[in-house]
Every structure is written in structure tokens, then in C-alpha cells.
């Protein structure tokens, strides 16, 4: 316990010394004091009647723990905050008080101890005497208890000597004595107070303030002392410390208006308007009724501050409270401020209520309601459409300022009572637009907001012809009004005026471009946007063009069919939108991941490995927010750019763009778009002849959609073009899961046929034939396979195999129905096995047949087999010695 006390005392002394040396601030010292609390200070308090240098009752040297508990510790009800902040301090019971109480109790016990009395009498007598003694003690005045933070008796002489030295001008001696007292009892305020006065006389105001602050903390119940310290802090330009002092003063005098006012002013200077307004609100509650003018002045300042900080509702509540408390002091300016806030909040009904209550405005209905409040109640009713019975009439006093009249008119316009607002507007139009332009603009904007463009147009026309209000904002409103009225040509001129006066205005340029396009002037429309992009790049602090301007320019270029320019503009935007992925060179490692989460992790790993800088394509920085364009618009732009790149033959860029879109997190939450992106990558890889990557994407698609023939066609094209055999095992494994899939049977048969294992191919084709006997394709493939088997060197029963093959080809010919393709295939099979006389027969039939009619001459030419038939016939004729006949066929069908 002794060690704990010593360590606490040393800590307190160390903190005080640090503060006095300026190593810690006043706020830090205050926080330490609040953290340590009463425990560390009470334990250091010496008892009266004991020497600070000798042993004490608790066995400690120079320190005595107050006997408030068995162990001499502090009471459980002690609170550190109460020790410093409350008026009533916990007192410490002295040794004399305890001894006196014990002696009194012993006297009572001795008087009650009489062996000659009976137990009952003894008990009764003792109880009576004890009751009398207690009554006597209640009336006895208890000795005055010493406060804990006063200087103890053994040190009062030293403290008095210090004060005497200070009075004699011996400042250094006085300071030394004060410091000695502080060393022994750092919780007492008197030595700090005396030291502060000494330093003040010496002219060391900073040290004086430090000691005075400590003294005030140790004896905090004097608000005047805190106010004095706040003033000294302000003289030293320490505003935060002054605010803290005022806060301490308010803790003990919370209703002091002067202190509240000073604190609020300082808070306002330190850019803390919210806390300052809280103080002003407290002042409003404390101001007496007779100081109504001061109340209203403060209300006006507070309302302006509330409005400046965006707390319009609080400003309205403050004004309403002032109007309720001092209705006779309300001026037109106050009503104008309140109605301005109501208009800002679009509370137009409250505007009418305020003007009716404080400006004597009379409201009535033509339907018979003449009472003002009854008319206001009618405002909440639904509109029945009977304007004759619901048109409101307003009567305003002649002394009403025109500002208030126009706010009333604006409210009536927004409430759709146009007839009632008309007289007020006419009254305004009698004034000069040069002088009352702001009111002109208010009423014109009100008309525009409710769609009354016919009423707004003449007012705006008057404004744009003035000198003061010939501004871009007014011209913009005028252009919007003309555009809404369908006066497109005049609107274009007005928008051009806006662009001339404000070249960086984005909305005006976009509207001008749209109207030029609407009027059939694509070049002018594009020029407006191009100039906008250049202007934005010059004016903006960011290096690149504005993203919204680029988007509108891209849309315009696409609508005009200028694909090259559109692609360049769109790629600028999309490269920024897919920035992290677009910059990477090897996106194949990312897009091959199955889930979007794995793709995201892989992309992050690549970016981290490269230090955040892509090693692939460069990206141009853009100004503006990418989120200003919706996800749907970004997707539409991406699809248009992909199609345009494909049309232009830039297949490599299509592949990179689509992979960047899939690797980017922009569309990762849209599963439908994710699926479509994979199909787009598949198409782009096929067009770019990147068949290895195309196979990676088509394989899972095939596994999910085994019944889609289009996918099997693409798969077959990819595997045929890639000249890779890795798909053989995939098809065989898939056949086990889907044994009734005809396309798989064909593909496995093709794989075996190409590998030369004709019997396996025949087995797969027969499987397909059994699944669909009417399919001519299986008949043709079975016949061709038999012919291949017959062409082998070591085939047994060659003629039997040929007969079987020919029977399947005849069946194929029947199912195909005498087409050019069927005759050519049969002739080509017979030509292969050397039956040339039979092959000539079928070739001749195919040569004299027209190609199939598919409706498009381009595709009909692609399906025409006459060139192939003529060439094969020429080979047969040339081999048999008919050179002239062969030349005739070649000249007729094969020479361009």
C-alpha cells in the first residue's frame, strides 16, 4: 500500500513538472487529472496534527491515508469527478472526531452497567439513556470539516511565509516556498494560486497562466476564475484553451448568458458552427421576455448559419419558435427569411400560412369559402378538376414588400392556382426587369417547373434583353423553354448563346448537338460535341476528355455510320472502364477461370505482380465520373464497339476487348451478361483464328448444351481448323454420358475415319443411323466408310463391301431426292474406287443441274458444285485420252 501511494505521488509530481515545463499541453494534463481521479490525490493528503516528515498513523512517512475505512483507504462512494467538479466535497473524518465518538459510546456503556438492577430494568434504563444521548447529540453542532484540497496545518505556516515574501516583493523566495508546498501536497490549490500571482507580477504571463490553470482545476467551483483564465488564454491567442475554460465555468454556472455567448463566439471562430449553434440555442432559452429584440437578432444570425450549413429544417424551427415567443417583433424581413426557407424546402402551403398569419394576407375561394384558415385547409384536398370553384383569390396589404408578394406568387404557381397568382405577376411586370430581375427569374422558373412554358417565355425574353441578367443561366432557361414549346430553331440559337457565354457548360452543348441532329445537321451536331471535348480538356484540371461528352459523341458517330471514328472514341471509354483488365497482355490466364471470383483473384494477382502497371495496352485518363453513365449504357456501347470492330476486320482488338470485359469486375454480378460475354469471346476467337482459346470456351458450352446443333457445328469447325487431337478423348467421355446423341456419334466417327480406324468409324455411323434411320448424313457416311474399307490393300471380300457401300449410297440418293449435291457425292465415291464409267453418269447429272435456290445469289454461288464436277470430269476425260473434251469443260466452267 505504501509503495502504491509513493508511486502515485511521484506520478502526479512528474506530470505537474512536465506541464510547468511546457512538455504537455493543458488539455493533456486535464485528461491525466480526470484519469487518475480522487484516489491518487486523497491518499497523499496529510492529516492535521501530524508532521509531514515523521511517521503517521498508517505507518507511512509523510503521508496519511484518511480513516474512512478499515484499511485507511478511500470510501467506495468517492468519485473522482465529484472531487474536482462538485461544490460538496467528501470530507475526511479526523482522529479527534473518532476518539470523541468512542468515548461517548463507552460512557453510555458504563452508565448502563449496573449489577444491582434487574435485566429488564437495566435494558429499559439503557434504552432511555441512549435515546436521550442521541437527541442531545443531534442538537450538538459538529466541528467544521476541512476540505481535502486545503493546505494542512503543518504547512500553513510555510504557505503564510510565502504570501508574506510575495507581499514584500521577494518573488524568488516566494516561488521556492510555493514549490516546496506543492512538492509535499500537490493536491492543494493555494500554492499554485500564489505562484500564479507571483509570476504575473514578474511579467511571465505564460507561467502564470499555467499555475493558475492548475489551481483552478484543484478548486474548480469558482466560475469567475475560469472566465478570467479564458480571457488570459485569449490574450495569448490560445482559443482552444479559452473554450475549455468557458466550458468549465459553465459547469458551475450553466445559466450565465455572458459565458455562453463568449463560448459560442469562439466556437464559431474555430469553424465549429454546430457546437456554436447549440450554445446559441441555450442562450435563446435563457433570455428573458424583456430582451425580445436581442432574441430576434440572435435568431436571425442563427437562421443564416443553419441555412449555410445545410440545416434548413433547424433554421425553420428556430424562426418559428421566435415568431411564437415574440409575435409582435416579427418584421417583413423575418417573414421573408422564413418564406425563403419554405420555398427552398418546397413547402409552399406553409408560405401561405406564414403570410396569412404575419402579413395580413387574405385567402378566399370563389366557391364560397372566405375564411383564410378554412381556405388553407382546402389546400390539402384533392383537385377535382373544377377550376371555376377551386380558384383561389389573394388580397395582400399595399405595404407588403414585393419580395414577399412574389414568394406568394411562386407558391401559388407551384400549388397550380395560376389564376390567383396572375395579379401578383402582373404587379411585378410593372416594375423594371433591370432592377427586379431576380424576382422575374424566380417566377419564370416556377412556371417552368410546373410546365407552364407559355407563361414563362415572355418573362425570360424580357430578362435576356437586360444588361444585368443577360447571363448564361438565364439563356439556358430560355432555351429549355423554347425547346419545350417546339420552337427548335429559336432554341438552337439560344443554346448557341449559352455555349458562347459558357463554353464549358456540358448540358448546353449536349442539348445543342441533339437539336442540330434533330434538324438534320449532323456535321454541326458533331462539331458542337468535338468542341466540347476540346474545351473540357483545356478547362478541366484532369488530363483527359470528359466521359459524358465522349459517350454522346460516340453515340452520334454511330448513328451517322462513321464506324472508324466511333470505334476510336468508344475504345477510349471502354479501355478506361475495363482499365485493370484492359492493360494486361495475357488475359487468357484470367478468362479461363470458371467463376468470376477466381477471375477477380487472378487479375489482382497479375496486377500486384506487375506493381499496378499493366504491360499491355495503354489507357487514356478521362475526366468526370464513370458512374455518370449507367451500366446499361456501358453494355450497349460495348456491344456496338464489338460489332463495329468485327465489321472493320479488327478481330484481334475484338478478342482483347471481349476478354477484358469478362475479366473486369464491371459485369460480374450480371450472370446473363457473363454468359453472353463468353459466347462473344468464342466468336471473336474463331474470327481471329485463335482456335486453342476457342476450344477452351466451347468445351463447357457443349457439356451444358449437348442438344444444341449450332454449338456442335462450331465445335466441329474449331476442331477441324485447329488440327489438334485433344478433343478425341473428350468426345469419347462425353459419349458415355450421352449415348443417344447423334452429333457425338458423327464426331467420334469422323475422328476414327481421319485416324484410319474405319471399323470404329463404321460402328459410330451405324449408331447414328439406328438413332435416326431417315438421316441422309448417316447413310452417306456409312457408304463412304465402306468404300474406304474396300480401298484398303488387305480387305477381305472386297466386292461384298463395295456392294454394301453402294446400297447405302443409293439409299442416300433416294433420301436426298436427286439434288446436285447427292449426284456429286455418289459420283465422287465411284470415282474414288475406279468405276469411272459409272462416275461419269452421276457427274453428268450433277453438271446439268442448277444449284439450290436459297434466296440469296451470294450463297447460291457458294453452294454451286458445277466447277468441282467439271474438274473431276476433265480428269477422267484426260486420263482416257479425250483431251479436247476435258479442255472444253475446263474452259466452260473453271476459267474466270
Question: Can you tell me about this structure?
Answer:
- The chain is mostly helical and 896 residues long.
- Among the domains are: 2-45 and 147-296, Tetratricopeptide repeat domain (Serine Threonine Protein Phosphatase 5, Tetratricopeptide repeat, Alpha Horseshoe); 323-380 and 388-543, Alpha Horseshoe (Serine Threonine Protein Phosphatase 5, Tetratricopeptide repeat), CATH 1.25.40.10; 544-688, no CATH class; 690-724, no CATH class.
- Helices cover 69% and strands 1% of the residues.
- The chain has 48 helices and two strands.
- The chain is elongated.
- Residues 1-6, 38-126 and 381-389 have low confidence and may be disordered.
- It comes from Branchiostoma floridae (Florida lancelet).
- Residues 39-126 are annotated as: Disordered.
- This is General transcription factor IIIC, polypeptide 3.
